[in-house]
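User: Teach me something about this protein's shape.
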Amino acid sequence: MRVDSCGTEKIGQWEMLPDTCLLHIFKYLSDNERSKAALVCHHWHNIMRMPCLWRCRSFHFSGHRSLKQSEYVAAEGYAENLGVFLERLEVTVCPPRSMVVAQRLHSTICALLNALVRVKAPLKSLSILRLELDRSSWDRGLRNVVVDKLIYFLLRSASRLNNICLNGMRIGTQLGFKLISAIIQNQRSLSPLCGLSLDLRGFFSNSVPNHLNLNIPHMLQQLQGLTHLGLSYSCLSDELLLALSQSNRARRYKYGRGNILQRFSLFCTQNEPHQQVVQGYSWATLVSSCPDLKVILTVEQVIDSQKLVRILLPEIPIMVYNMTAFYSADENWNAKPLLRNMLPCYRHSLQSLTLDLSNRRKSLDDELLELVNVCECLIDLRIWAFLDVRTVGRLLHIRLTKKMSLNKIRVRIYTMAENTEEQEYQLKEVLSPFCYPPELQFLAVICPFI
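Assistant: First, the predicted structure itself:
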């Protein structure tokens, strides 16, 4: 409402907007901007209290001592005042470099969880990322209190969690089992049974050979509603796969196919132990109990072909494969066995492929093109490598001449030249004859190798 020079009230354009439009606009405002907007008029104040604006929230806590204390206090204040609306919460932590920052993080996380219990927050999704509790800055007392407070929240809160992500927590086995036990109890309190997505990638400390611990299969087997599971590869064992298979058969018989494992995400890094040898039979048994199972495998800096052979078993129904070997210390590493012999085994299931390779001394153009040509279900392709510019044209030719679902293509061509103008011109010439269909999202760029 505005008043003209004659004192007559007239309706402004903003006041003519329906509530649906205002809500859509307010979703893009920060907390501070929303507070100011709530003071404009009674109508906007009432709109700002609608639950749909406050159901999702993310906080990022830095690991530096210079961080303003107000950024920590804001998290507790949000939970106290608006936690009653909160359904999805994500807390991302930059691992603390000093004990002072660790103490501040400890106080903030504990206060946040206490407030969520107090206001009976209806959380459905909780993510706490990259705590890295095995760092020296977390002394034993702080580490134990943070885990105990999280256990308290899981057992006492009013939340009906169907998504729990504790990626990068990196704790010892004893504390880890206590926390998983609390998750099991939280799920058992839910009625009716709802599907659970549980991400435990990087949950245990890297220094522990978790594949030898039989408590991990036993505990995960007790999660009756588990539909999505994320683990570090160091936790994988034949015993785990067979335990999941047995649990899925029981749930499939009791609840139907909707409440069995559907997605299995595995994260494998160079720093993890890879001594375990998982048998293809164990994977085949799991797949038989979960006919719709899809595996998402992320491999970082694992370039030993013998290790990759042990990991990439043909019985695994890999849907997504992500690999980074960009910072490889071994310049003589050859990715050809991976592209020629290993990945083609998944030509009937692979839908998304991301490869970041530093193949400066080895040409991989033909191998990459042949892999794309044989993958029947590929939808999303991202390649970052040293390639011939003409390979991009050959790739587009395959996509446009075959009946493929490949509608997302991203290619980054590495070059050692500082001046990329000549290669960019060549790329433009290669792409100029092609006419892309509207459904194809395509991007190719030249990038200096740093």
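Now, about its shape. The mean pLDDT is 88. The radius of gyration is 26 Å. If you'd like, I can walk through any region in more detail.
User: That's plenty for now, thanks!
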